Amino acid sequence: MTEPDPRAAQVYRLFIKATPEAVWDAITKPEWTAQYFYGARVETTGEAGASFRYRSPNGMELWGDETVLESDPPRRLVVGWRSLYDESLREEPASQVTWEIEPQDGGVTLLTLTHDRLEQSPGTAADVSGTGWMFVLSGLKSALETGSGLVPSGT
């Protein structure tokens, strides 16, 4: 059995006991991302054309600096993605991350994250595949449902 190619589109889906508005806020507000995105704080208005930056927990390092490509709150957010937190990944071309937020019955939201355009960014593809995005998404779910994310110790 062969392993899937991480340079193909990576798609992650999960159900979260939260409103679409709460999920949107968790993606676009620094007080939320600090709880689940390795301590990183997002800086964005979430509007199309706005910057979409992630800063390290101490605010001194820029971990990501791209642009919001599409915005339809609280349903869809498309952003460019470059991994600036790692010197070897910094020079790769930008890829793209799409957050799709769909309300379900019973106060549940289906969140689909698609990370694509990775063909020219093999290091980024390998870095975010598997547990990379799953740790972030599991932390987002935990933060929204329990009030406590999954930030690794030392972050």
Features:
155 residues, alpha+beta, Alpha-D-Glucose-1,6-Bisphosphate, Chain A, domain 4, 7-stranded antiparallel sheet, globular
Which parts are unreliable, with pLDDT below 50 for 5 consecutive residues or more?
none
Helix content: 25-40%
How many β-strand stretches?
7
Q: What is the name of the CATH class?
A: Alpha Beta
CATH homologous superfamily grouping: START domain
Shape: globular
CA-CA gap between termini: 37 Å
Report the β-strand fraction as a percent range: 25-35%
If you consult CATH, what is the topology? Alpha-D-Glucose-1,6-Bisphosphate, Chain A, domain 4
Largest sheet: 7 strands, antiparallel
Question: How many domains would you count in the coordinates?
Answer: 1
Structure summarized in a few sentences:
The protein is of the alpha+beta class.
Give the topology.
Elements: E1 10-16, H1 20-28, H2 30-36, E2 41-43, E3 51-55, E4 62-72, E5 76-81, H3 87-90, E6 95-103, E7 109-116, H4 122-128, H5 131-146
Antiparallel strand pairs: 1-7, 2-3, 3-4, 4-5, 5-6, 6-7
Give an account of the 3D structure.
- This is ATPase.
- The chain is an alpha+beta fold.
- It has one domain: Alpha-D-Glucose-1,6-Bisphosphate, Chain A, domain 4 (2-Layer Sandwich), CATH 3.30.530.20.
- Helix content is 28%, strand content 32%.
- The protein has helices spanning 20-28, 30-36, 87-90, 122-128, 131-146, and strands spanning 10-16, 41-43, 51-55, 62-72, 76-81, 95-103, 109-116.
- Strand 2 and strand 3 form a beta hairpin.
- Helix 2 (30-36) packs across helix 5 (131-146).
- The chain starts with 9 loop residues before the first strand and ends in a 9-residue tail after the last helix.
